[in-house]
Amino acid sequence: MTAQEQYVEFGIEREQYAIRIQDIHEIIKMQDITHIPGVMPYVKGVINLRGKIVPVLSLRDLFGMEEQTYTKQTRIVVVNHAVDTVGIIVDRVSKVTTFNDIQAPQGRFGGLDGRLFTGIGLTSGGLVGILQLEEVLLRD
Amino acid sequence: MLSEYKEVFLEELDEQLQLMDEVIMQLERDCESGEVIQSLFRAAHTLKGSSAAMGFEEMKRLTHRMEHLLDLVRSKERAVTPLMIDLLFRALDNLKLMKEDILKQDCITVDVSACLQALERFDSDAAGAASAGGAEAGASGAVQSQAGAQAVVAASAAVRPELSLSIRLHMKSALEQGLRLSWLCVRLSPDCFIQGARAYVIQTMLTEWGELLLASPDYESIGESVGDAPELTYLYAGTQEPAELAAMAAGLADVAGAHAEAVLLEETEMDYRGTASAAAYSQDTSGLEGALPASAPHIDESAAAAEAPSRQPEPSSSSSAPATPPSAAAKPKAQTIRVSVERLDDLMNLVGELVIDQTRIQQVARTQRRRFQDDSVGELGHIADHLSRIIGDLQESVMKARMLPIEQLMGRFPRMIRDLSRELGKELELVMEGQDTELDRTLIEEIADPLIHLIRNAVDHGLELPEVRERAGKPRQGMLRIKAAHEDNQVVICVEDDGAGIDPARMRSSAVGKGIITQEEADAMGDREAIDLIFRPGFSTAQRVSDVSGRGVGMDIVASHIEKLNGMIDIRSELGRGTTFKIKLPLTLAIIVGLLVKCGGQTLIIPMSNIAEIVRVPVEEIRSVRGQPVVLIRNQVIPVADIRDRFGVPQSNDASKHLPLVIIGSAEKRLALTVDELIGNQEIVIKSLGAYIGKVDGIAGATILGDGSVALILEISAMFAKTAAR
């Protein structure tokens, strides 16, 4: 893993997470979400991304945190996953960053399963959980 | 194998086989039509040529035999008999089997020897008949033989082939063009061992020098060897003098000798049996201009004559590429190209995007007009209107590109029904209407099975045996009508018979007997509902399981098939009068007309093709039967379902006295949906929710509305499943 890879860092509550920049399609503001009955609770519904129907899921819900009302800072991080495009709702997007030091995840990170992360980045601001997208998106 | 041509060959084969199917049926009905025989002959000839080119020897032999037989019919040496029809059908079935073989394994394993033998036997019978006819013709054709004697046919032992009407017409036109007509007799050298190939070369040379009207024997029938006397006779039209032509032919390789002589004028005469006119004609041969009008009535008399000018000389067409059948010149065909369905799908998707954008632009134009009063806003409105017109046209064109006439499908039925009725000993007349009704190609494929099942059902269970019909005071011959038509934005296909009809009482008792419903339910059931029982799984009213429909498949399969296509099916049946099955299908599966409804603040779409009707009923009309809310509409008890329940949408405290109900139908079932508000109908593009979300129960997909929001499309069949599960 090259240390100079770029990541997009974003936050939920007071925690910081990151996704490799290559995996990100775009970052958009909160949209009207059309709810779909009978799907996983963390799938909030679908949005129209320039003519494409894109499912949107809540990272808060996925991580077992309480839902909050969306704010001006709320963003949807749209990632490319396999053939699909999926939106991930986050509280705020902080910045594009690189990590000088990435450590392998321990059994758990915060209150979460370590498998959700490819590693933990160390920055001056603290620890950043680097998301393992396959794991995050494939939760049943 | 020439794999690059295989596709083309198979396409052509398909076309020709279907054509043959239809034409043989026509021939059975109308044995006299020269036109019918001609087109059948052409089909056989085309297949002979292309199968030979592709190296399918067996197929070539079979089609050659068919062609030969048809040629005899065409030249009236043989009459059409039921036996011959059967034989032709048998040959056709063999060809179909061959096609399957080619599709599957690139080579033919079907054994056609029995069929070939039967055809040959038939031919040899025909040959006997022909020689008898020949003697007759000899007597009447005195003029011709006298003339022949004068010209002194050189040692040529070859018998001049019979001249068909079409060839006579060709000769005439050649003379009119100022060409010389010659009989050319070519003797191959005895040590030539690939005679078929040599004959082919000679034929090709002759077509290069001029026009070849007739070749006897045709090189294709020569195969590898002509026999001991390799002698070929040609009828040739060109600028050369006979002597010149003979010299040219003699110069070709493997040719031992060639002899040519001018064709006598009598030989071009139209009706070789009509002695009176022949005499008149031969007396006045000073100028062809004078002779032509005199013979014109003869041309009109024969149906074959009308067809004849379009026929090309056989040899030249055989030597051309297999992709151009000889009929290409005959029937001015619309120019077409083949496009893969995926490309059309892509195009359709793109148009779908445009449709969405167009509704959005119109919406923007509307809001702008409300807000501002400016020229540019007006301009925007104009542009929006123009754009929507263009997109509308574009959409229609793309849709049309995917459409095929239902003829593609219905063409199979006559044959199927013929076999069926024979098998079951029933007499029936098939009436087909609306074959030109167009629908999406995927739909045509999908609807084939259910439709065939309905037809089988009608013939097997619907129509009575001739004796039974007579006893009931009906004509012996039953009637089966298959009708297709457009109705609004739907295709309606009816299968109608005038048979015994469905007995609701028997349906009830049978269903109770089979444990499908309880006696109590049966008693509460109206006649219509009782008839609808036919669509329940495990139901069959047949007393006797016949070969035909007793294949373990019931009408429930038909219903579920149609359900899958977002269609509806209805039965009307009158005891003793007959039964009608009516299928309604959407025109296409990609873009549908949907009814937009509001439910608890969410916009939902119900496919229009599933909507039977929309009513507004007073709240108190919704009653409850064993906990299930129902509503009585036109004497039909329809269960009521609330979409809000399904979608977990909170109930609104709407105090209105009237409830809008959308009555939906899926296959034969009906269900009334309560909604908050009806918005209107609109064309929508169905989009899937994607692999991540996958299949969601009750939702067929989503679409993007004019305001950019996403609306879900209800999956109608799931709504029924849920109601049933309660």
UniProtKB/TrEMBL annotation, chain A:
Residues 4-140 form the CheW-like domain. Transmembrane segments: none annotated. This is Chemotaxis protein CheW. It comes from Cohnella hashimotonis.
UniProtKB/TrEMBL annotation, chain B:
Residues 302-335 are annotated as: Disordered. Residues 591-725 form the CheW-like domain. CDD domains: CheA_reg, HATPase_CheA-like, HPT. It comes from the Bacteria. Keywords: ATP-binding, Chemotaxis, Cytoplasm, Kinase, Nucleotide-binding, Phosphoprotein, Transferase, Two-component regulatory system. Its main location: cytoplasm. Residues 384-589 form the Histidine kinase domain. GO terms for molecular function: protein histidine kinase activity. Its EC number is 2.7.13.3. The keyword tRNA-binding does not apply. It catalyses: ATP + protein L-histidine = ADP + protein N-phospho-L-histidine. The keyword Cytoplasm applies. Pfam families: CheW (PF01584), H-kinase_dim (PF02895), HATPase_c (PF02518), Hpt (PF01627), P2 (PF07194). InterPro entries: Bact_Chemotaxis_CheA (IPR051315), CheA-like_dim (IPR004105), CheA-like_homodim_sf (IPR037006), CheA-like_P2_sf (IPR037052), CheA_P2-bd (IPR010808), CheW-like_dom_sf (IPR036061), CheW-lke_dom (IPR002545), CheY-binding_CheA (IPR035891). The modification Phosphohistidine is found at H45. It is found in: Cytoplasm. Residues 1-102 form the HPt domain. Residues 302-332 have a biased composition (Low complexity). Involved in the transmission of sensory signals from the chemoreceptors to the flagellar motors. CheA is autophosphorylated; it can transfer its phosphate group to either CheB or CheY. This is Chemotaxis protein CheA. It comes from Cohnella hashimotonis.
